[in-house]
UniProtKB/TrEMBL annotation:
Transcription regulation among keywords: yes
Keywords, comma-separated and alphabetical: Sigma factor, Transcription, Transcription regulation
Family statement: Belongs to the sigma-70 factor family. ECF subfamily.
InterPro entries assigned: RNA_pol_sigma-70-like, RNA_pol_sigma-70_dom, RNA_pol_sigma70_r2, RNA_pol_sigma_r2, RNA_pol_sigma_r3/r4-like, WH-like_DNA-bd_sf
GO molecular function term, any single one: sigma factor activity
Gene3D superfamilies associated with the record: 1.10.1740.10, Winged helix-like DNA-binding domain superfamily/Winged helix DNA-binding domain
Superkingdom of the source species: Bacteria
Keyword Transcription: yes
Species per Swiss-Prot/TrEMBL record: Kordia antarctica
Protein name (record): RNA polymerase sigma-70 region 2 domain-containing protein
A GO BP annotation: DNA-templated transcription initiation
Residue span, RNA polymerase sigma-70 region domain: 17-85
Amino acid sequence: MQQRLRNDDKKALGEVYLSYKVAFVNYAIRYNIDNDTILDIYQEAIIAMHQNFVIKQTVLQNSTVKTYLFGIGKHKIYDYLKANKKMFAITDASSNEITEINIEDTAPTERQQLLALNFEKLGESCKEILKLFYYRGFSIKDIVFHTHYKDENTVKSHKSRCLKKLTTFIHEN
């Protein structure tokens, strides 16, 4: 796929656009951005990705096209939120980690509160893997690369157990 994108293959670009559109919209919803804006951001991310492949001849070594696209999209979401004063970033001087804080006044829904309450009951490894997969949009392969897990099957099994545990907690309430 990367080679097709570098060769300015419009059909490949269309395939990428359609393949990841729904996943990106679902990812971006957590930022309380309206659907039209999410789609605009997605299109901007697609254009930026396309330009990087065609003009810069980008070659992805350690990530998938999806992860690369979502990374661009995430930064465009943060730029949008910062520009609209809905988010700001704090950098921890000791670890150089950046934490984004949403300062929007909207209260979480009852469902979101229930999820957050039960998410806190999970162990740290479950929290980490679910945040990487659902919040940061990492693929299973990317999680293996960025963590201590030995292979993709281990990550899949652990993620599945964590989701079952979270679902059980939610249904007990």
